[in-house]
Design a protein that fits this description.
The chain is built from no helices and 11 strands. It is mainly β.
């Protein structure tokens, strides 16, 4: 237990390993190619947890199509323009000095992205 003063009022908080919760509808998603995959996970941890995302056991990093937003109470993974290679298991891991928690979420991408080509006629 920790004790601190805020506005002359004592506050207590108890350290705890991370607890991850999410809307069950985000698990086992099936998406059409070209759509966006969004995984929102709530995080309860004292002290705050370090969060890492994985896809099929490989760590995910941000890129042009991938964003990871993490704050003390949530983490959101967004992948724009998904393709078949985005099918698989996504794992979120949250760790603080008290412990570690993880959750696996599955996603399946169906179909293919149709590419459109511009045709220019030169006269």
């Amino acid at each position: 237990m920790f004790y601190f003063m805020y506005s002359n009022i004592p506050h207590y908080y108890f350290p705890g390993k991370p607890i991850l919760t999410y809307d069950k509808a985000i698990n086992n998603q099936t998406l059409k190619a070209g759509h966006s995959l969004v995984l929102n996970v709530n995080i309860e941890a004292t002290p705050a947890a370090k969060v890492t995302w994985f896809h099929n056991d490989k760590q995910i990093s941000q890129s042009g199509t991938v964003t990871i937003e993490t704050e003390d109470t949530f983490s959101r993974l967004t992948i724009k323009g998904v393709t078949g290679k985005n099918t698989g298991t996504y794992r979120i891991e949250a760790e603080n000095k008290v412990g570690k928690a993880s959750e696996d979420l599955k996603a399946t991408v169906i179909g293919k992205i149709k590419k459109l080509f511009k045709v220019f006629i030169i006269q």
